């Protein structure tokens, strides 16, 4: 649709792809990928945003992801060719605060329609321990579980600064949006649906010729997300424990939505060993709460999880933060991987 866009050769297209402009072929033809003008051209920052654009846009959009499959989104640095591609797009869909280089590139671009998913739902602050008790202090949370003395919370001091400063993730990049807000909204089907509705309205406004289809597609996607939410509610209703351990503090919204508590091994590089104090704290917590599993993710090393699990006599399994789909993913799209996450949580939590 963008009249400034020019046709490029297959060789040039291959070069673009090699530099990190992975086109989602499910919603774009070869001609669209090459820059034809009969599609609404959307550049998405990473998989959760690209999936929304693909589902809502359907046959009318050509979606290009700035983050390659298998690439850790937080590590992304925008290339000059990606910046040029962004300049010639009709819309940019991103989540401000998650990828600084994307924020800068989009902010400086001339893209007419800029859609920041962070503005389409409410964001909250999350730290190493998050869940249904996020508004309580650590001591209040321990009192409710009835084992403050068992937990000891020896590691509280090393994490106390997280309320004042946005903690950095295992890659050294800020893992929170401005103001210390947790960006992982797509892992909560309800919040993801709110974002979908906002994206749909933005598409309708930017490409009014296909507004009816965008509205219809958005409604269908929101219905599927509502069904997924119901599946999670039902699947996690009866369980032996509410607590799960992850190496990556990505599941705070999911935990809060379904009355769970996520304990994350935060502030550690995935290639390094967990601190002795944190391991001791988590071992005590695991024993007190009946935790059986330490979860790791597909895009980073499982070394941290296996180290803790070995020391505490626990199992390991994958809980996928869905920042990208690869051959290692337990599913081909958002819904399949989320269903796999539910099964993994049901097993770990002893859900019936």
From TrEMBL:
Q: Which residue positions does the secretion signal occupy?
A: 1-28
For region Disordered, the annotated ranges are 127-185
Q: Does the keyword Cell wall biogenesis/degradation apply?
A: no
UniProt keyword list: Signal, Transport
Q: Can you tell me which family this protein belongs to?
A: Belongs to the bacterial solute-binding protein 9 family.
What is the name of the protein in this document? Metal ABC transporter substrate-binding protein
